[in-house]
Each structure stands twice: as structure tokens, then as C-alpha cells.
Amino acid sequence: MLSNGRGTVISIGSRNAAFDIPYTCAYSVAKTGLLKLHQNIEAEIGGRGVYSYYLQPGNVDTDILDRPGAVDETSLRHHEDVCHAIETVQRKAKRPSEFVAEACVMLITDADSRLLSGLYVDLDQDVNRILDDLRKGENGECAKRSLYKLKISSLQP
């Protein structure tokens, strides 16, 4: 991609990279690492024609929790938090997978979407509003507050 001066990398992420969700350690670590990968790709090769997106699709209509072994039965019986988390996911409105596919097409074809490269693209939010803010450059809230990035906030000396 770099030798051609163009390309797009899209990974389907999860809100688990941004929020602490009990009993999802392995999944959360994998999704968090994936987000950091996209941030580092942008830091390393941003501006060279290759765009990198971490797409958090929200609740998509899949059978992931219905598969045998998807949820540890012992955890369900002994940890109320696990039951609550699963019930919450199952209860929430789900969007069709086509919605996520359309978002991927937008990231590839819409030039303004390049502003989202290396960021946490959250389909639960108004992406056009985020793009409007990113168009403001350093004057936008996204830049001022370093939004949609994995970071550790700390006290300043």
C-alpha cells in the first residue's frame, strides 16, 4: 500500500476498547490492542496515502451470544454481573450488518472520512458531527481534547 501511495485498513472494533466491561478480559485486550495498532499506524504513516480505521459498530444483529460455548455457564450461574451484561446486550436495539458495511464503504470512498484515520470511529455517535469538528483542525474539540484516541489522562506537574 505504501509503495502505491494509497490503501485502506479497516478493523471492526468494539466499545470494549474504551469502556471497562466485566468478564471480557481477553476480548477487551484484543480490541484495545487493535485500536492502539490503528493509532500507531496513523502516527507512523499518516499523510502518505494509507488510511487506517478502527470501527466500533455498536450492537449488530448477529448470533454471537447464541452459539454453544459463547458464554461460560459457570460464570452465568455465579456472577450476577455477567448475567446483567449479557441481558443488556441482548435487550439493546441492534442494527443490521448492512449498516456497518455502508460505513466501511463511506470510509473508503469519502475523502472527508480520511480525517477519521487512526481514531476510534464510533457508529453509535453522529459521525458527520465528528467530521464537522475534525474539519476545524486544531480549533475543534476533537483536537483540543484529544478525543477518540486511547490515552491515559494524568495530573499535570
Automatic annotation (TrEMBL):
Gene Ontology annotations for the cellular component aspect, listed alphabetically: membrane
InterPro entries: NAD(P)-bd_dom_sf (IPR036291), SDR_fam (IPR002347)
Pfam families in the cross-refs: adh_short (PF00106)
Annotated keywords: Oxidoreductase
Superkingdom, natural source: Eukaryota
GO MF entries: oxidoreductase activity
Coiled-coil ranges per UniProt: none
Family to which the UniProt record says this protein belongs: Belongs to the short-chain dehydrogenases/reductases (SDR) family.
Protein name: Uncharacterized protein
